[in-house]
Amino acid sequence: MKKILLTIAAGFSLAACVKQELEEYGNAFLQISSVSVGSISTKSTINGPEFPVAEASRGIGLFLDSQDGSPYDGQSQGYRNVKYYYDGHRWTSDNAIMLSASSGRLCGYFPYNESVTDITSVPVASSFSGTDHMYLEPVSGVSAGSRYVNAEMKHALSLVSLKFVKSGEYSGQGVISSITLSGEGIAAKASLNAVTGELKPSGSSYLSYDIPSSAGKITAAGTVEEFLIVPYSNDGKGRTLRLNCTIDGKDYSLALFDFVVSQGKKSEVVINVRNIGLSVAKVSSGQWDNGISLTLSNGRKVRVELMKETIERDILANAYSSDNSVIVEGVSKSGYPLMCKVPGNVNCTVVEDRGNGFRQFRI
User: Fold this and answer.
1) What are the pLDDT digits (tens) for 150-193?
2) Are 301 and 221 a contacting pair, CB within 8 Å?
3) Residues 182, 124, 91, 75, Cα dihedral to 10°
C-alpha cells in the first residue's frame, strides 16, 4: 500500500470553506461552513467527493432545538432530521433551517438516515470498512446572527486495524482469502445518543464478523484491514479477541489477549505472517489517526497520511480517488501554499492553485 505524505511550507490554523449566504425576505438560513472530524481537523474533513468510508453527499442529519431542549423558536416540532449534504462546492440543504433571533442548540449525526426521528436513538452497526458513524459535538448559540457553523464530528464507534506483514522467511504469496474477528465486548448493533455520544448496544456481547470475499494480497509494505466496531461496554477493560484467517490457502488462528475496544479510539495490531504461523508484533491504542484509506478504480489500495508538522499546524486537507489517481487538496488560513511529498520517485503534480493557500495535487 503506497503512502502519500502531505506537508506545508508554512502557516497554521483551520481554514473554513467559503461562506455563502442564503437570504430570503430578510430571514437567515443555517450555513454549514465546514464539517471536520475530531480535534485534528486535518485528519478527515468531510468536504470532498469521497470520505474515507462514505461519500459526503450522503449528508449529515441535523436537529435544532432551543437551548432548554424545547422546540426551536416556539415551533410545534422544531427542526428534526434536516439533511445537509456536500454538493461538490459547499454544504447545502433542500430544506434549509431558517433561523431567527432566538438562540438554539444544534445536534447532528453522520451519515444521514431518513428513518431517524429521535436524535437520542440513531441506529449504528459494526462493519468491515463500512460506515464510520459519527455524531456532532452540540453547537449552542445558533441564531440568525450566528448562522455559520463549523461542525465538529466525533467517532461513535471503535476502529480495529489489522496490519499483516510478511516476515523475511515467509515463502508464500500472502493472498488473504478470509478473515474472521470474534470475541467478547463487541456488539453487532447499537442505538447512538447523538447528543451525548452514548451507545446502547443490542443483542449479544459476543460478535463474530467475517470479511466478505477476498481481502487481497499482502504487499511488501504490509496490508491493512479495518473493522468498525460497536463497543459493548466502554469500561476500558481488556478482553480476548480471536482472529481466524486464511492466507495462501492455509488456516490460521491467533488470540489477542487483554484487547481494549473503546469508543472513538483506534486499536492497531501488527501481525507477522511466518511459515510456522502468525505472531503479534505490536499492539497500540490511541486516537484515530490522520490517515485516509482509498481504493482506486483498478482495485489498488492507497493510504494518504498527513505529516506530523501539518497536523500540529491544523491545516485543512482532504484526499479522494479519481480513476486510477489520487487527488490531494488542502488550504491554509495563512495563505501559504501546501506542498506534497511522495516517497520514491512518484510524480506529484499541482492541478489547481486557487491562491489564498489552496492547492490540489494529482498523484
Assistant:
1) 888 888 999 888 889 998 889 898 988 888 888 888 888 999 99
2) no
3) -170
All three cell numbers of 291, joined, read 490517515
Grid cell at residue 60: 449529515
Beta carbons of 65 and 71 less than 8 angstroms apart: yes
CA distance 316 to 42: 5
**Cα separation of 172 and 275, whole Å?**
8
Q: If you ran DSSP here, which 8-state letter would residue 212 be given?
A: P
- 3-state DSSP call for residue 70? coil
- Spatial distance between the Cα atoms of 284 and 289, rounded to a whole number of angstroms: 12
Q: Where are the alpha helices (DSSP H) in the chain?
A: 308-312
Distance between CA 160 and CA 265 in Å, rounded?
A: 9
Q: What is the pTM of this model?
A: 0.70
pLDDT for 124 beyond 90? yes
pLDDT greater at residue 325 or residue 44: 325
- Cell numbers for 336: 501559504
Dig out the grid coordinates for 356 from the structure: 489564498
Torsion of CA 317, 217, 263, 235, to 10 degrees: -150
Alpha-carbon gap, residue 328 to 325, rounded angstroms = 10
